[in-house]
Amino acid sequence: MPLRCPVEEQRFVLEHVVRISELTNDTDIVDAVLEGAAQYAEGEVEPLNRVGDTVGLKWSPDGVTMPDGFREAYRHFVEGGWGTISAPEEAGGQGLPLALGAAVMEDLNAANLAFALCPMLTMGAIEAIGAHGSDEQKRDYLPKIVSGEWPATMNLTEPQAGSDVGALRTRAVPNGDGSWKITGSKIYITYGEHDLAENIIHLVLARTPDAPVGTRGISLFLVPKILPDGSKNDLRCASIEHKLGIHASPTCTMAYGDEGGAIGWLIGPEHGGMRAMFTMMNNARLNVGLQGVGIAEAATQRAVAYALGRVQSARAGGPSRDPVAIEEHPDVRRMLLRMRALTMGARALTYYAFGQIDRGHRGDSMATMRGDVLTPLVKAWGTDVGCEVASLGIQVHGGMGYVEETGAAQYLRDARIAPIYEGTNGIQAADLVGRKLGLDGGLAFDGLIADIRAEIEAPALSALADAVEIAATTLRNAETDDRLAGSYPFLTMCAVLTAGWLLERQGRAALADTPFAAVKRAVSGYFNTVVATEALGLAAGAEAGADLLYSVPAEALA
Ligand SMILES: Cc1cc2nc3c(=O)[nH]c(=O)nc-3n(C[C@H](O)[C@H](O)[C@H](O)COP(=O)(O)OP(=O)(O)OC[C@H]3O[C@@H](n4cnc5c(N)ncnc54)[C@H](O)[C@@H]3O)c2cc1C
User: Fold this and answer.
1) Which residue lies with its CA nearest to atom 51 of ligand 1?
2) Cα(265) to centroid of ligand 1, in Å?
3) Strand 180-190 vs strand 171-174: parallel, antiparallel, or unpaired?
4) pTM tops 0.85
5) How far is CA 311 from the centre of its chain?
6) Residue 199 near residue 225, CB atoms below 8 Å
7) Tell me, what DSSP letter sits at residue 201?
8) Of 114, 259, 375, 522, which residue is most buried, by most CB within 10 angstroms?
9) How far apart are alpha carbons 440 and 407 in whole angstroms?
10) Of ligand 1's atoms, which has the minimum distance to the CA of residue 423?
């Protein structure tokens, strides 16, 4: 069953949730981008999803060979300017809202998550170099990165330094001419090596001589695979991982400086690496949330098509009757509506967050802070939704979901990485209660809740808003461990509340007598009754404190 990108839905969310006409005067271009992206994703990228999964990648000491078809599809990505949508105009981008670029990325994620990872990480690098790079870096690298001719990577992780990024050991020593020699090894580097492009621009975190310990001593370097003089830099892909999913996305162990040192240049000041990297990571975190949305959309479409076509004669637990498609069973209906509602909720939350960043770029500092508050919600809840919906998609297929040929299983295998990378969802929850809850003296978070309260009508949603406020007060006054113990359930409550608010707004705006509007109203009704009420139950976990979790040693749980 081929993917149909949800153009009407995306347009509706951009209008009613993002209010995109306040961000660009050119609404014609919005339609052109949505339709063109859908055509490209459906026609060129999705047909490669299966071959990417089944054939995968080939590693050799000379590099990584992508599956058949990927090179051509990527060439068309570059030629079509799909990476330039929301990149800055001065770097050859189109300067359109990030929220519109998000719709493009959602389509690519839905079509082929492994393929979409290459442009996704490149976008984060564009932000980091744009915000922290030197004039020369912006002149010499940004235009080719923006066009996609030179995709970029993000090199943080080392065996001993994952969530604990401050423990990284890769070293950078000055060459005396403004460049640095980088030596060390990085693991799990997405698209660290491939044959889609003539050059790859690595953004590498490393430690300079005498740097302070921990994250304060980290610096960010631009390390190209091919140096400006055309020679190959001293770096290589030592191996690639064999993974549960995203088989066509090369996850590389990168060796820097086997022959003395890879040449790199500082991005931003020495020891300013975490700041620069956070610019990149914040963008990437929203984009990873979007991966959840894309997978959820694709999984839902596939499950609905299967449920409509699978005919059975008996109705379990009820009177037998004539053959019916399984979509008529109330429990299958429950799964399909839940999948659709979670997908639409995660999309609304994610696009809304991108829209806040857009408003921030146009000078609204309150919107920037709201974007900061929303980022962990989008990343963690969006990716949880991706996994839950993909898992329900398998369930709808019954046994056929567990065998590979329907494609339902691939969605779950592919989706499962998203709660892990780009700061695990546990780290997102810690970020929410550790930094975001207190941002601007708490005003950023409280302002969001006040705006939600001013608009919501559903009783379960109002009750959830009450519960979120009570839990927020408890967590603000709690000891650190108690706060962290409640962080994950609290994050889910906040995300469901925000998504429910935005779905309700859409349900109210969907007045037409069309199937599309009917779905909007049904989804709002379901989400703000069932999902909002479930989230209310999370308050117990949010407020229980750490003692409940530490009453037995971990060994006893084995
Ligand atoms: C397919 C794939 C692609 C990747 N791509 C990249 C990439 O392009 N660039 C890159 O730099 N890295 C990449 N990574 C690495 C990824 O970001 C890390 O795996 C991730 O940050 C987790 O680090 P870790 O694996 O060391 O797990 P750990 O940090 O050991 O975490 C293990 C568990 O402990 C929890 N935990 C650890 N510390 C805390 C804490 N302080 N609070 C609460 N919970 C905590 C985690 O949430 C997790 O559940 C990729 C990984 C994979 C698998």
Assistant:
1) 188
2) 26
3) antiparallel
4) yes
5) 36
6) yes
7) E
8) 114
9) 46
10) 21
The pairing of strands 152-155 and 201-207 is: parallel
Which run of H or of E encompasses 491? helix 487-509
Instruction: Taking residues 455-464, report their average pLDDT.
Output: 98
- What tokens were used for 521? 């109203």
Q: Which of 422, 457, 479, 534 is catalytic?
A: 422
Radius of gyration of the chain (CA): 23
For residue 260, the tally of other CB atoms under 10 A from its CB is 9
- Is the Cβ–Cβ distance between 25 and 105 less than 8 Å? no
The span from the CA of 349 to the CA of 367, in Å, is 14
Token match 């975490």: residue?
Answer: 274
Q: 314 pLDDT exceeds 70?
A: no
Q: Looking at residue 22, what DSSP letter applies?
A: G
Cβ distance 128 to 202 under 8 Å?
no
Q: Where are the alpha helices (DSSP H) in 310-364?
A: 330-361
Query: What are 280's two structure tokens?
Result: 């990149």
Q: How far is the CA of 458 from the centre of ligand 1 (A)?
A: 38
Asked if 304 and 325 count as a contact pair (C-beta separation under 8 A), the reply is no
Tell me the residue type at 51: V
- Token pair recorded at residue 147: 């066009």
Kindly indicate the confidence band of residue 317, based on its pLDDT and cuts at 50, 70 and 90: low
Angstrom distance (rounded) from CA 380 to CA 120: 17
